[in-house]
Design brief:
Strand content: 15-25%
Helix content: 40-55%
CATH superfamily: Vaccinia Virus protein VP39
Number of domains: 1
Largest sheet: 7 strands, mixed
Number of strands: 7
Oligomer: single chain
Strand order of the largest sheet: 3-2-1-4-5-7-6
Shape: globular
Order of helices and strands: HHHEHEHEHEHHEHHEHHHHHE
Distance between the termini: 27 Å
């Protein structure tokens, strides 16, 4: 699994830039357009929260655990509905940002939370964090199925019978290449090159093989109520992110200027910045190297 160091590498580096571009409760996960790309990014994210809340039966007083809460956008929505949200993240910058907004967020591994930590919940969400639960090394060791099965046991123990769990995650797509062909020397924008960039952008991550692997891991403890693809929605989401990242903002550009000494002094920092300038994720979705799914499960 991606550990705290890996998550800080991926998210804390862009923390201030992201918040200045997307807002203090910006969402770094795919929105829900459902084919209506006339919606603004904010409207599509709101539609997603409404969809999740309706499927999890969230109402006033509901206790909801958000695993991998990011900068707290869904926790903020839960609070607006009168629910009681608890968030978990492994990014120190995200946790600090959430706490400043008065959100109940803890720096903790989602795979290791127990009922004795925060109690049980009426509903649980996991919006994008599942992608970080298995590393490439763990996959190579044949541990991926076991890791996913153990995670669903964690979720099961935190819910009552009939309690619901929403998850959205990237998976490998129908055009994923043989992992042995992944190479830094591959032609730029080829599948082999794009996957290499993603591995460097998000260390410690190895995606599920597909939707079936996830459903099979959940099936001993949960029944599947809903499944849909969010691939096209994620492509549009990433296009909108790029517009907002490039939009001029005085404080943001002043922050960029302040990074120049570090950029000039550190080859590693220059490498990391250059990696996040590549739209590898979006291109992988467009080429169907990567897929994206939404699931709603119910504890049996």
């Amino acid at each position: 699994m991606a550990d705290q160091k890996d998550l800080d590498y991926s998210y804390s580096l862009i923390d201030r830039i992201f918040r200045m571009s997307m807002g203090e409760t910006g969402d770094f996960s795919g929105a829900m357009y459902n084919g209506d790309f006339s919606l603004s990014l904010e409207q599509a994210q709101e539609r997603k929260y409404e969809f999740i809340s309706a499927n999890l039966n969230i109402k006033e007083g509901s206790r909801v655990l958000d695993m991998g809460c990011g900068w707290g956008p869904f926790l903020h929505f839960i609070r607006s509905m009168g629910g009681v949200g608890t968030g978990l993240t492994l990014s120190a910058a995200q946790a600090a940002s959430c706490k400043k907004k008065g959100l109940n967020v803890h720096l903790k591994d989602c795979r290791k939370v127990l009922p004795g930590d925060f109690g049980t919940f009426d509903a649980i969400s996991c919006i994008g964090a599942f992608e970080a639960f298995c590393s490439k090394e763990e996959w190579q060791a044949g541990r991926q199925d076991g890791i996913y099965g153990d995670f669903f046991k964690v979720v099961h123990d935190l819910l009552p019978v009939g309690g619901r769990f929403y998850m959205q995650t990237m998976t490998m797509g129908r055009n994923m290449i043989d992992p042995g062909d992944i190479s830094k020397k591959a032609e730029k924008k080829s599948a082999a090159h794009l996957i290499t960039v993603l591995e460097e952008q998000f260390p410690g991550h190895w995606l599920p093989a597909g939707d079936r692997q996830i459903i099979d891991a959940a099936s001993p403890l949960f029944k599947l109520l809903h499944e849909s693809s969010g691939r096209l929605d994620y492509i549009e989401t990433q296009k909108q992110w790029q517009i907002r990242f490039q939009r001029f903002h005085f404080r943001k550009y002043a922050y960029f200027i302040g990074l120049i000494p570090r950029y000039l002094a550190s080859p590693e920092f220059r490498r990391r910045i250059s990696l996040f300038g590549e739209p590898a994720n979006r291109l992988c979705f467009e080429k169907e190297i990567i897929e994206h799914y939404r699931f709603v499960f119910e504890k049996v």
